[in-house]
Here is the input.
Amino acid sequence: MSTKAFAAHSAESPLEPISFDRRELRPDDVAIEIEYCGVCHTDIHFAQNDWGFTRYPVVPGHEIIGRVTAVGDKVTAYREGDRVGVGCMVDSCRSCNACESGLEQYCSEGNTATYNGIDRYDGSITFGGYSERIVVSERFVVNVPDKLDPAAAAPLLCAGITTYSPLRHFGIGAGHKVGVIGMGGLGHMGIKFAKAFGAEVTLFTRSENKVAEARNQGADHVIVSTDREQMQAAADQFDFLLDTIPVQHDLNPYLNCLKYDGTHILVGLVEPIEPTIHAGQLVMKRRRLAGSLIGGMPETQEVLDFCAEHDIRCDVEMLDIRNINEAYERMKRGDVKYRFVIDMASLRDMEA
Ligand code: ZN
Ligand code: ZN
Here is the structure.
């Protein structure tokens, strides 16, 4: 079906309107009319080809909320009219150990990304949520509880699950001292989840003027990471650090803040670590450096249900899709609290 969208055509060009055809429903597919789509830093990386493997044109967007408009013959979990979500993946091999464990993000064949991925059946390039509608296998669709504000729920599908999953995996809860590094889309959700799990939470931020805001978000303490004295005073204090910084940064001062057996968890960085880390920071205290990627489909459902139950919401700023390029510029400056969400009515309203 002909579908309006916004796409980047090269690393240098701004996003602009295009139209393309969404596929016909396969037996296990759900067709979704998109109501809201969050804007993630990854979208900017792909639009600009920062990682060197963007396939143009690219239609970004992997924090998708919408209504089911049709289902394939074999679909059992969803019906027309249901409010649903789609996150960072739309397929995987479904038979490897990771997939059978509900950890499709770690599929041995690699998961199929919601955009810039390659469809496993017809070889086409996947297009994401900056569009009117999407067609996705029901296995990669989640139910959006009625209690959630649908616009504020969109970022849970990437920013939310990315921070929820490692906190759960490592069993973070009461009695733990947790540091969250960085307070953007991911960091502000990390603070909320770590608090909800009962931990004592400290935000590490470079900027003095985020101190009050971090406390508003629920942080018990704030450390200004550019202040050497504050960093020295934090040595050997933390059980876990959740590091949401998406660009290269020095990990050594943070590792020094972990207790023995403490764990530094990377969720934002997918580039080489520079400057290099001093192995002594790990060896001398049996510390661990770990990474974590989004979450599997069962856990993505779990985070939506958890947020409905505990009244946790992402802080969002609504965006008209015609202002998407300006929004990217603001995000690069860190000028958003804390996630842009596109109101897809603004795309439907545009002249064909
Ligand atoms: Zn994302
Ligand atoms: Zn697999």
In short: The chain has two domains: 2-158+295-349, 163-291. The domain at 2-158+295-349 is CATH 3.90.180.10 (Quinone Oxidoreductase; Chain A, domain 1). The longest helix spans residues 297-310. The pocket of zinc ion (ligand 2) is lined by residues 92-93, 96, 98-99, 107-109 (CB under 6 Å).
